[in-house]
Design brief:
The protein has 14 helices and nine strands. The protein is α/β, with parallel strands linked by helices and 375 residues long. A five-stranded mixed sheet has the order 2-1-3-5-4, with helices on both faces. Strands 8-7-6-9 form a four-stranded mixed sheet, with helices on both faces. It starts with a strand and ends with a strand. The structure holds zinc ion.
């Protein structure tokens, strides 16, 4: 079974790549073949907390949408998918297409599927509002992708699916989640209720496929539940992806990507390679090594301009007015901020760049938890 997952408008590329990594791990030896198609779309990271109430309100199919302009219609997304299926990629009609999108839909559903049950969209922006911030949103999103795969096999059309959604709060993946926050309960229990199991059995869906989906639900559940229970020390792995794109990933978290900017990658990589005390103001002495790292990290642009900006960051500018001192500490604190979003509190001290102002800096991580596949 081939399933095509497309990066639609306003979907962050790191998020998309992380999900594709996770699915590679989950379905390595499976009869299900997930293909991921990235595109050039950028993400819209603006947080609209003031619209929180609106964001968390779902409008059922039988209700009229009375707030216009709050999102795209379902048909809009199905039209997008139609274009991808028929003109961009030429998928067969029996292949499921899952379109991830940063655009809101006017009913505020997590996602929906067309009548033919071969095209569905999933909203990627809503999850940060629902999940506790120590749950990376790739996990609920991956759960939804799997949810749509299994739903596409269980029902003949979207009406039948809607008629069988559970509207009394349950812990089954078919719970409608009228209160969007309830999604967290579904993923944490990872249950499929008896009614749904019956249907799966009656539909004669391949046992291999069902097993793979069950097992993956279970894996995702362990990622969502507090990671500290499962893993004490995750590994930082640096590797090259397509287009020589260098990424910092954490294999124990399903190859989750740490979303560093290029300069942050360069400086963190430098500190991981150098297991020693270094003053931020002495980084200029390591100019050549830092340049070499930055050339690997920043392949998209010509080297000259880019290296000039690295020199500025290190305080090597010829311009008397600008000494770059502040920039390097900003980069450092941004690196640490990113890491803190991902790695549990209990062990974060091993991963961040430590060092008081004007004092030596260092990452104290035991380097057995650092894999450099590029070196
Ligand atoms: Zn159920």
């Amino acid at each position: 079974m081939k399933i095509n997952v497309i990066q639609g408008k306003f979907v962050d590329e790191n998020l998309f790549l992380s999900i594709s990594n996770l699915f590679k791990l989950l379905f390595e030896k499976s009869s299900m073949n997930f293909e991921f198609y990235s595109s050039e779309f950028y993400s819209d990271n603006s947080d609209d907390d003031d619209q929180r109430d609106l964001i968390l309100k779902k409008i059922k199919l039988e209700e009229n949408i009375d707030v216009s302009g709050q999102g795209q219609s379902f048909q809009y997304f199905f039209d997008e998918i139609y274009r991808y299926r028929n003109y961009t990629y030429h998928f067969n009609n029996d292949e499921l297409v899952i379109y991830l999108t940063g655009e809101k839909n006017d009913r505020n559903f997590f996602g929906w599927i067309n009548d033919e049950m071969n095209s569905c969209f999933i909203n990627t922006t809503i999850w940060k509002q629902i999940y506790n911030k120590d749950v990376d949103i790739i996990y609920p999103l991956s759960y939804e992708i799997l949810g749509w795969v299994i739903r596409s096999l269980m029902f003949n059309n979207s009406i039948e699916l809607y008629d069988n959604a559970h509207f009394n709060e349950t812990t089954c993946f078919m719970d409608f989640c009228e209160n969007l926050k309830k999604h967290e309960i579904k993923t944490k229990t990872g249950e499929i209720c008896n009614e749904c199991i019956d249907r799966i059995n009656k539909r004669g869906i391949s046992k291999l496929i069902i097993n793979d989906i069950y097992n993956s639900f279970e894996k995702i559940r362990t990622y969502i539940l507090n990671r500290e229970i499962y893993i004490t020390n995750p590994t930082i792995k640096i590797q090259k992806f397509i287009n020589d794109n260098i990424q910092f990933t954490i294999p124990e978290y399903g190859d989750l990507i740490i979303p560093f900017e290029p300069k942050q990658k360069t400086i963190y990589w430098f500190f991981l390679r150098n297991d020693t005390d270094i003053l931020l103001s002495s980084l200029k002495k390591y100019r050549e090594e830092i340049h070499n790292i930055h050339k690997l990290v920043n392949v998209r642009y010509g080297p000259d301009k880019v290296l000039e900006s690295v020199d500025l960051m290190l305080g090597l500018s010829k311009d008397k007015v600008y000494d770059g001192k502040n920039e390097i500490s900003t980069v450092k604190s941004k690196i640490n901020g990113r890491l803190k979003e991902i790695i549990p509190n209990k062990i974060i001290d091993h991963y961040i760049i430590q060092g008081e102002k004007m004092m030596p800096n260092r990452v104290i991580l035991n380097r057995q938890f650092f894999t450099d596949l590029v070196q």
